[in-house]
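Z., the sequence and structure:
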Amino acid sequence: MNMGLIPSAPEVTVVLQCRQEPSEIAATLRALAAQQGAPSFGVLVILNVLSSDVRVATRHLCDPYPLVVRVVEEDNDQLWRVRNRAIDECLTRWIVFSTEAAPGPTWLAALGQEAQAGDTAVASRGVYDMALFDSGQRFEPWSDEMSSSAASPLATAIRRASRALDDDTATLRHDWAGTALTLGRLDEAWALFDSLGDHPEYGAQASLYAGDFALRDRLWLNAERCFQRCLKHRPDWNVAIERLTALFIQRAQATASTHKKAALQREGLQRVQNVARPSELQLYQRASLEAAIGSRDIARQLFTRLTTQSAFQAGAWFHLGEIALAAHDSTRAVAAFQHCLKLQPTHGKAISRLASLLLDARNGRGADPPSLTTSRGAARATA
């Protein structure tokens, strides 16, 4: 790790969590501003109190310090969720989860030395190489790194229990998972479903449920493992294939690495292309992936087919508008966005794209103004 100060390109992100009042992170900010011999770093504040007064106060609190500070809002204050949100927001090579209210003046310098000398993926005391997370790893409710208050002891016990279940125990766990799900004890239900993944009778459905939980919380490797296990039980189950494709799409959208994004898009596309009788959703997923990797002609054909399917009409027309925009065909783009808004008048992105096209036309940069005459009223009506 380069220990020189490079303000324009920090190497480390220090993550702070603000649960109640901005003043609770004041001591930490003062201590960070006084670090000695530290690598270049920025601060990411995860704000759990979603009120405008607290948001403004937090930003004002950060202003006096000579630190690069970003504030993002997360409505869930569970430690593992906060850490995963920070990972999604991190733009540096290293990430540090601060657990000290007022770290000493050489705290960050010592962590930098440990990271440089230690394992390339993780060093002690909360320093992680982002390569670990770029591969898909995320914190889970039962992660060993979590404090005992953040993890569910029951979920941990269930997860670690033997998977060699007799039928009576498996049935009991399956019923228990359903009850936990109904009562809103989601982490408990998640762990129960995951523990049933290898059972011949319950494994496919249980793995699908467990994968959905992991996908919801962007636990990519966990979700992929569950969906793959589901397909091991039922290789042709379309819903699991759709989930697996959605996983690659969401991972691609979340990653900041261009090369990683392209690789994930291609892997998702390969999976959905191999489906013998694709569903409408799988056609939509394939069209989205084809468009993302630049295969616009194929994407246009697929989205055009989907404009006749009620569940995907609005989205298909929107994507056709995006493809037309990429091809600098403003007239087709306007027509596509109009179709989208006719079907879904509150489609925010379509409203924004259409308004931009109208503005360009008015300023002489887009399609000929006569072709957009009828669009102006539509844009006003939907704005």
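The domain at 312-383 is CATH 1.25.40 (Serine Threonine Protein Phosphatase 5, Tetratricopeptide repeat). The beta strands are 12-18, 41-47, 69-73, 94-97, 127-129.

Let me know what you think.
H.
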